[in-house]
Amino acid sequence: MTPSSPLGDWRVANARWLQSALERLRLRMHRRALWLQHAAGVRAADWLLADSEEERRFFADDPGVRDLDQALTAVDVQLAAQEQAMRGSGRPPALLMLAELADLSPIETDLVLLAAAPAFDAAFGRACAELHGDPRRDRPTLHLALVLFVNDAATRILAADSLMPPRRLRSCALVEVGGADTDPIVTRPIAVDERMTDYLRGINRCDERLTPLVSAAPPALACASVDDAGREAALLIASHAEGAAAIALVGTVEAGARDVAQQACAQLGLRLYLLDITRIALRQPADRRRLISLAAREARLAGMALIVDGSEAGRGSPLAAAIDEWAADYQGVLFVVSSERWPGAGVRDAVRVAKPTRLEQRQLWHTALTPHAHSVNGGLGAIVEQFDFGPPAIADAVARAASRSADSITETLLWQACREQSGADLDDLARRIVPCFGWNDIVVADDVLAQLRELASQVEQRARVYEAWGFGARLGRGRGIAALFSGASGTGKTMAAEILASHLELDLYRIDLAGVVNKYIGETEKNLRRIFDAAERSGAILFFDEADALFGTRTEVRDSHDRYANVEINYLLQRMEDYTGLAILATNRRTALDTAFLRRLRFVIDFPFPSAADRRRIWERAFPAQAALVGVEFATLSRLELTGGSIRSIAVNAAFLAAAEQASIGMPHLARAVAREHAKLSKPISPAELSAYHAETQP
Questions:
Q1: Number of Cβ within a 10 Å radius of residue 241
Q2: Is 592 found in the same domain as 443?
């Protein structure tokens, strides 16, 4: 800022106006001092009354007082001219701006100036001590303000309400009141803190006690539904008196609740800040109340609105109690985000925040990409179809991709950014599998391989079929793809899931349904909801192992536990149908599955036990090209009735046996590894198998 800038010019004008206002205060205090000097020889019964005949006569007859009154009149004229000039330039003096923002009465405005005066000139402190007749009382008081600024005794009684705790001066921390609570309010010292002093001087900065607890919200990324909800919220806030309102945003931050709040604030001329309610909940009650007052002051001085995420605040928790406290006492605009309408009494109004549709998400992506050079173009359809992102996640993904490119954002960069953006949500709920197989690694029947490639193709072509060709509008629900992989352990179900994840460039998460199922009624549904909610945002492939643990034939209802078990199964079936991504369920007991469930699946792929020819191909691919082999007879090995998983396990164990002997991998090592694998499977090896090496197979 330079003196020649508009802000610099305003600060100079504000300083001149403030100096004139302090001069008027000095003259009023001088006038009061003259009366007190005169009153030293007057009976107390006469001069203690502000409207006594003695005081009126003195002010009317004393030439010195008449000269002061003339000077006061001249200063009043000067102040009015300065104010008019500043308003003509578009901005009034800081004190008068404060009075308008906080809706202060004239006496409340004068109280702020009087309380701040010693911070501008220490001489005012000495003058206060003189007027109080006590050198220890060098701070202004309400009594001093009343005798300086109010002539009528009855008006003084009413004006004393200015420092009541609910009034704006104290509820918004515009004035600090010292002394003991038991002292008369009119004699307690008043002052302003450094934040207020700076504001009156023309410096508007956030209070340092609040800065660790609030942070500026990122810019909004808007679409039609966000705009509509933002307008609704703005109208609700405007309907509240004095600009204080607590609004529930029923939805999630991921769906765009924060962006709705930003849009509402933009219409109201406010700035949105995120409130760290978790840290505030740990504070002592007195400290929390103080923070509420300081935040209410920022709401007036800086146009600050606050948003707090209450989605993780369970009822009765300290976090919920802290939110309720702010909703009840904060004299500003507060948005409370929660998945259901906030039950606290302080939050009376609510606006529902719907997650943007796929069409709106496409618009959001275009908006977020506009400031950046990019070559995404046609690839955006696949991204929109795969990743169900709201405004915050879209903005973050674009920013993440932009930070990695000095030129332009490519489809590959954006896709990778989306995967990273979404993966964290599921990491706490499921186990991430890092794919390590490709199409060349799997050995299955031609029909199984064809179905797997068809499954991958459907995931890849969803954007064209659902959006470009219009099938999505007709489907409504069931836009996702659910598949069942059935077969014995080791036949390639998990490998196939890894291959699909690698081919589609998606994250793969394994969910053990046996671990999700909880013995407590309703807990299974809760666990599944958390998984699917996180997966909807991530676009990840969900791999449910041991699907028969929950998808088995629904039980006959004999008691409440059976009833709830069936409810949980029905809930999972519904979420499977609604899930927009790829969900793969694996089981080695297809016959145990409910037929109603099987009808809802897009693909049911059986992984048969490998034939001898398939087993040979698996044996041949089980050894890396750099592995040292000697005398390995794949024809002999293929006669062993083993699954692909067992074959790969034997190959690895044989390699370790050979490495321990400093030898190449040969049939003796494989025979010993085969024996160990059979023992592990409780499947004794017959003498006919590997007959030439049977002696080597004895444990």
A1: 7
A2: yes
